[in-house]
Amino acid sequence: MEMPVVRVTRGPSKYLDIWDLPDEEEIELELNSEHQPVDDGARTFTGFLGTIARKPHMCPIRYLNWKVMPEENKEECWRLVERKYCVPVDPIAYAALKRFALQKIGKAWRDHKSRLKKQHYIPDSRNKARVKSNVPTGCISQDWDILVDHWYTDDAVIESEKNKERRSKQDDVHTAGSCSFAVHAAKKAKTDGCPVERSVLYPILHTRKNGSIVNPVVAAKIDKMKELLADPANHLQSSDTTGSIAWALDDVFAKVMGKERKGRIRGATLATMEDKLADFDEMKEKLASFDEMKEKLSQFEEMEQRMARMLQQMQHISSQCNQDIPLAQQSPALQKSSAASYQPSSL
């Protein structure tokens, strides 16, 4: 009997060159106007964030979703990024890159848990003990127990079935791979020397390497977009060639795909208004902390000046007292010393 071919994979990249980077070195990161990585190092940056997401102590798998991951864990992840990469000084750019990085880490963390389930989960609650006993390498056993317990709850089983049904109905599947939309947009902008809007990027993100479009439904949408783009009046007016994706509520993409729903803008890697408000709140918090630190420093300097004046006054009073004390009242040792130091010039 012929044995089936077993595909050997190398597993996820570990990016040890970044982890082992000396503390005095930082990696430069080119950003677009939305403060997202877009150059050749963007893919490496995203891959490195994935290794952070798989660190069991930094991003424990015990939590059900990224929103309930403790803030101190997220801050630890970001501090690590700051040690390895040169982050912007500008507060707005800093907050945007931080948001981007934590979103990528969150997605990589969800993907990591999804892979664990695909590799280890066995349907039917009778297999739970067996799954628990098979703790994957790199997982903390207590966290693994919590995650496996969740997989076998009624709510998790029902939600899993719903997700499978939703995925089966999806026809808008992109081929961007591990590169972000912004990276693909930046490459297109450099090639064409002009801004990239959603309807121009859409065919690139839904075409396979062999030139075929992912499915007939997407092909029909692409044809409609190309038809509308044939009219120059339908083109957006933009001069941004950094890799940011141009869009408008009534652009060609919206005319073909329909109106935007509440949340993220489809076909673009832009921050939502909620993200920007969160960034603004974080900036205000940092500024408030800075103002508080300045206030404390000012108080300390004032206290230091007050102590210096008191010391000066004490020294002045002490000097004045020494001048007012008669010689007879001074210490005998001082008088003796003064007498002993006197020597007649001749007998």
TrEMBL record:
InterPro entries: Probable_transposase_24 (IPR004252)
Stretches of the chain forming a coiled coil according to its record: 283-320
Record key words, sorted: Coiled coil
Keyword Coiled coil carried by entry: yes
Disordered, as annotated region: 322-347
PANTHER family associated with the record: OS10G0409366 PROTEIN-RELATED, PLANT TRANSPOSASE (PTTA_EN_SPM FAMILY)
Protein name, entry field: Transposase
